[in-house]
Specification:
Layout (H helix, E strand, L loop, with lengths): L4 H36 L31 H36 L2 H15 L3 H11 L3 H12 L2 H15 L2 H8 L4 H37 L11 H8 L9 H28 L7
Helix pairs in contact: 1-2, 1-10, 2-3, 2-5, 2-6, 2-8, 2-10, 3-6, 4-5, 6-8, 8-9, 8-10, 9-10
């Protein structure tokens, strides 16, 4: 039986969606394995062992050991797990701030809209990293300083998207009908607006993750982020700088490469998720 041209066009699109879905599942499993690995690894592997210090990569130590004999593979996995946890908190806080301010700007009148739009433009006019450093330094650094700084610096772009989406939904006929029926603003926001913008919030949350993780590593590298006692990637890279001239290249190469792989995985995960959830791009 011969297939119609429409059926022939549907087959490549279906195969493309299956590939994207498979990539999303593989990326999610990869990131989950890193988180579980960081939680389940024995902390004894990152204790000082001077008899095995400065060892190059081998089967016993895949990423080699540092100047104190600590296993770099275990330190890298724990550091990535810690960075993902910090990124989760930072991206979640930023997404919530963007949701609240975006909905407030679009539904609380012109004065609120102008004020929130001015705040968004103010934050966007300054690079994220500069604002993050100032906030982290003001709060004394550490876990609290870096998490609060990440929350307060990565929301403006998503808030602008949320504001635009809410303005579009407000003009819909079913929303206008709900207003005419006397439904309060909170009921309309909860039952009409929030379900409509939930995919945008989810996608924005996923796309915030790579920036949050990279900025956390950068600030920690500068000494204004996580405590030096934590096995964070930024701390590992910062400590390894003084040993690179001695030929211990593996101290910075493997942690930096793994960080880039995780960031790229998150970025690809968010991009494919955006395509899968966007009906206008699902058939491209």
């Amino acid at each position: 039986m011969l297939s119609t041209p429409e059926e022939k066009n549907k087959q490549p699109l279906l195969n493309q969606r299956r590939r994207m879905l498979l990539t999303i599942v593989i990326a999610a499993l990869f990131l989950l394995s890193i988180i579980l690995g960081g939680l389940l690894l024995d902390e004894g592997r990152i204790t000082t062992n001077l008899t095995e210090r400065n060892a190059p990569p081998s089967f016993d130590h895949l990423f080699g050991t540092d100047w104190l004999g600590r296993d770099m593979f275990a330190r890298t996995i724990m550091g990535l797990s810690l960075s993902i946890g910090v990124g989760l908190l930072g991206a979640t806080g930023s997404a919530l701030i963007a949701l609240v301010l975006g909905m407030a700007a679009a539904s609380m009148g012109k004065i609120a809209d102008r004020l929130i739009s001015w705040i968004i433009d103010l934050f966007l006019s300054v690079p994220h990293l500069v604002t993050l450093i100032l906030i982290a330094f003001t709060l004394g650094g550490g876990f609290k300083g870096i998490v609060v700084g990440l929350m307060l610096t990565h929301w403006p772009s998503l808030a602008r998207v949320v504001r635009a989406e809410v303005l579009q939904v407000r003009s819909a006929e079913y929303v206008q009908m709900s207003k005419q029926m006397g439904k309060p603003r909170w009921w309309i926001a909860l039952h009409h607006i929030l379900p409509h913008i939930s995919p945008q919030i989810l996608i924005g949350f996923m796309l915030l993750f790579p920036h949050v993780i990279l900025h956390e590593a950068a600030v920690t590298f500068l000494g204004l982020g996580l405590s030096p006692h934590e096995p964070a990637i930024g701390i590992i890279l910062s400590e390894s700088m003084k040993y690179l001239s001695s030929g211990m290249w593996w101290l910075a190469f493997f942690p930096g490469l793994c960080l880039l792989i995780v960031v790229r995985t998150f970025d690809q995960f968010g991009e494919y998720l955006r395509v899968m959830l966007d009906p206008t791009r699902a058939h491209e």
